[in-house]
Amino acid sequence: MADENGAAGRGGDQQVADLDGFFDRLDPDMCVVTAAADGERAGCLVGFASQCSIRPPRFAVWLSKANRTYRVARAAQCLAVHLLTRDQRDLAELFGGETGDETDKFARLDWREGHGGAAVLPDVAAWFVGTVLHRTDGGDHVGFVLDPVQWGEGRGGPLLRISDARSIDAGHPVD
């Protein structure tokens, strides 16, 4: 159904495909989100993440229900969010192209335990650990609203963006 300006609203697959013209123009920073709970660690490359409040500072990350990271994050009290630089494509490929169902991603890199047992990757542009305040179902992803409680900065350089990571084959495709 179209409005008075000819814009289509909710509808079938064609209308969803038409919306790609909007979403394909977005080029957000990518981040690696890690979770630790019940003796398990997991992490994945995330393109859906944003600051969602100024005061108090809050940040939301959206995890795919298909990923092991989501399954671990459901029980986690804290999540760690890491910004990567463009020269860290190998790290992006590890967390975006491998699945934790088959690979221990943390065995391949240096990490340390942060607040609440969160897995922190210290050699990134910046990172923070946030306490999970809320979880909200958004469809095929679940949003985790985080209250930052610990953070740090590392390497300089331009941040990895979604356009830099498009060629990474996802470890767990959505479809």
**Main pleated sheet:** 7 strands, antiparallel
Shape summary: globular
Fraction in beta strands: 25-35%
Class of secondary structure makeup: alpha+beta
Count the strands?
A: 9
N/C terminus separation: 26 Å
Give the mean pLDDT.
89
Rg from alpha-carbon coordinates: 17 Å
Sheet with the most strands: spatial strand order: 2-1-5-8-9-4-3
Helical stretch count?
A: 4
Q: Low-confidence segments, ≥5 residues, pLDDT <50?
A: 1-6
What order do the helices and strands follow?
Answer: HEEEEHEHEEEEH
| Helix proportion | 10-25%
Structure description:
This protein has 175 residues and is of the alpha+beta class. 17% of the residues lie in helices and 35% in strands. The chain is built from four helices and nine strands. It has helices at residues 13-23, 68-73, 89-97, 162-165; strands at residues 31-37, 40-46, 49-53, 58-64, 78-83, 112-113, 119-120, 126-137, 141-153. It has a seven-stranded antiparallel beta sheet with strand order 2-1-5-8-9-4-3. The protein is globular, with a radius of gyration of 17 Å. The two termini are 26 Å apart. The model is unreliable at 1-6 (pLDDT under 50).
